[in-house]
Design brief:
By secondary structure, this protein is α+β, with helices and mostly antiparallel strands. The protein is built from two helices and seven strands, in the order βαββββββα. A seven-stranded antiparallel β-sheet has the order 1-7-6-5-4-3-2, with helices on one face. The longest helix has 29 residues. It starts with a strand and ends with a helix.
């Protein structure tokens, strides 16, 4: 079983700055309280193939996650796929960005969650929690991106 959650927010920053902030990847700790630690391999600019390894805490359990960038279209599109083996993974996820009035940026975030093994029983719970948190998650992204100072 799998399912998708998504959220949309409008950020009071130019699209190039929002894209740079989100593509960096290691900024996830600033808006995702579940991310406890994150690294990027290789260091430097994010490209297709860049891997982010993180320790996350979900439902009181710590897991190791590995996400690979699968698509990058500056400044409008970022896609990833989880390559780690966990009971619930993000088969596909991404950001779609578009310029809106007054130099602001609309961001759509989505993740397709998929259960593996016993995770097939748990993915519905995880998806429900993600959908419930989606508006707050989008708001955390908005606040973090607006607070960042990208050149």
């Amino acid at each position: 079983m799998s399912g998708q959650f998504e959220a949309v927010t409008e950020i009071d920053r130019p699209i190039e700055e929002v894209f740079a902030y989100l593509a960096e990847g290691t900024n996830d700790r600033e808006f995702s309280p579940r991310v406890q630690h994150i690294t990027k391999d290789p260091a430097g600019p994010t490209t297709v193939g860049t891997v982010f390894r993180s320790t996350v805490k979900d439902a009181g359990m710590k897991t190791q996650r590995e996400l690979r960038i699968t698509e990058l279209e500056t400044p409008t599109r970022i896609r990833w796929a989880e390559t780690s083996k966990n009971v619930v993974t993000s088969r596909e996820g991404g950001y779609d960005l578009e310029t809106i009035a007054d130099g602001r940026t609309r961001v759509r975030l989505f993740n397709v969650l998929e259960g593996h093994g016993v995770g097939k029983l748990l993915v519905g719970i995880a998806l429900g929690a993600a959908r419930k948190d989606a508006p707050a998650f989008a708001d955390r992204i908005k606040k973090a991106a607006e607070a960042s100072r990208r050149a």
